[in-house]
Amino acid sequence: MPSADDAPTRRIVELIATGAARSRTEIATALGVAPSTVGIRVQSLLDAGILREAGEGTSRGGRRPRVLQLAEAGTILTADLGGGHARIGRHTLGGALDRIETIAIDLSEGPERTLERVSEVFDRFAENASVRAIGVGLPGPVVVETGSVEQPSRMPGWPGFRVGEHLTARHDVPVIVDNDANLAALGEHTSQLGGDGHSITVKAGTAIGSGIIVDGRVHRGATGAAGDITHTRIDGSGDIPCSCGNTGCLETVASGASLVRQMRERGHQAVHTTEDVLALARDADPEATTLVRTAGTHLGQALSGVVNFFNPHAVFLTGSMSGSEPFLAAVRSRVYEACHPLVTQTLRIEAARTGADAILLGAARLAMDRLEMPVA
Fold first, then answer.
1. SS3 212
2. Does the pLDDT of residue 95 top 90, yes or no?
3. Which of 119, 144, 259, 316 could form a disulfide with 352 if both were Cys (CB 3.0 to 4.6 A apart)?
């Protein structure tokens, strides 16, 4: 596994890949390190064929700087596994997506058959390219150290299966596996805030999930459950049973599935999906609009305690419900009302920008940490 000493070298690759720096001088300024240190690490990347020099840049006094670019040195592959489909991505070494394919899968078929279908796409994406690392997002609690899921719902045959080891044996590259909510949080955070700062990303769709980023890195907690607000008890939610065994959890009153259930209980038998509810709300159906607003208020209530305690720079909302303005407005209103003014002084609460790509981008970001970098 790469050591901590690899981190500055990987950061140089990221700066070049994203265009944030184009020369040794700009890298030294961005990293806040001595030019001599940058020179040594850049030379190791040049020798390894990861970077190449591409002519001279504009002089700002003195010698013209040598422009640095990524060489054709490989690719990162990622996969976002859902209940019925998987989105598979190919990335540059800097993490940028350059190809996406969606395939149908059925997690109930078990890990080996499902992962083989994913690997077949990986094989196609790897043609004429050297795969350096793979990142995978799973819809359940993940033990990152073993790359396996623990106590997942609707994933028969998956508990304890070491996804990372399986894919490493199949593709002979380092593999990182994490919960999809954590990866979505990392992808959105990196896109909007870069490698620093603190944020919470909540995926509000059929179900609710969330991830926490501290100083630009995923915070998982002692048992990998950090950020899971799904089972927060909500005042006034009643005694609706939850999959966790308790009653009155956030998921039972604020998830898309709960809105579908509540609409059908009110006689709307044509409602089958979260999008059906949101479509009615967009058409100003009073019951749907009220339920969507109430769901946003409940989520804001759950978030307010986290925001007060954590004091993040931003809260990003993703998933199908994040596109509903009544839902987003209700979340904002409740958080701003319930939190200390100092905590919300610069707080951003807004819809995520990366959309469905967030999990793939987060997976690529983590996979970059597994890249075998040359020793400077």
1. strand
2. no
3. 316
Right CATH number for 4-70 from 1.10.3720.10, 1.20.272.10, 3.90.1150.10, 1.10.10.10? Answer: 1.10.10.10
d(CA 228, CA 250) in angstroms, rounded, equals 11
* Cα separation, 336 vs 111, whole angstroms: 43
User: Which residues contact residue 55 at a Cβ distance below 8 angstroms, ignoring those fewer than 6 apart?
Assistant: 66, 67
- 1 pLDDT band, cuts 50/70/90, is very low
| Residue 30 in tokens | 């961005």
Euclidean distance between CA atoms 119 and 228, whole angstroms? 30
pLDDT at 2 over 50: no
CA distance 8 to 4: 8
* Of 40-44, 169-173, 210-214, 227-231, the least confident: 227-231
Give backbone dihedrals phi and psi of 202, rounded to 5 degrees, phi first.
-115, 125
| 73 close to 373: Cβ distance less than 8 angstroms | no
CA distance 89 to 360: 6
Confidence of residue 307 (pLDDT cuts 50, 70, 90): very high
Rg of the chain on CA atoms, in Å: 22
pTM: 0.83
Nearest in space to 354 (alpha carbons), one of 178, 195, 103, 185 = 185
Q: What is the pLDDT of residues 201-217, one digit of tens each?
A: 998 988 898 999 999 99
Res. 6 pLDDT band, cuts 50 70 90 = low
Q: Is the pLDDT of residue 168 over 70?
A: yes
Q: Alpha-carbon distance 201 to 82, whole Å? A: 18
Identical fold between 4-70 and 195-354: no
SS (H, E, C) 48-98: CCCEEEEEECCCCCCCCCEEEEECCCCEEEEEEECCCEEEEEEECCCCCEE
Q: Residue holding tokens 């700002």? A: 60
Alpha-carbon distance of 240 to 158, in angstroms, equals 28
Domain 195-354 top-level CATH class: alpha beta
Ranges of each domain in the chain: 4-70, 75-185+359-368, 195-354
Q: Output DSSP code: residue 241.
A: B
Q: Specify the CATH architecture of the domain 75-185+359-368.
A: 2-Layer Sandwich (3.30)
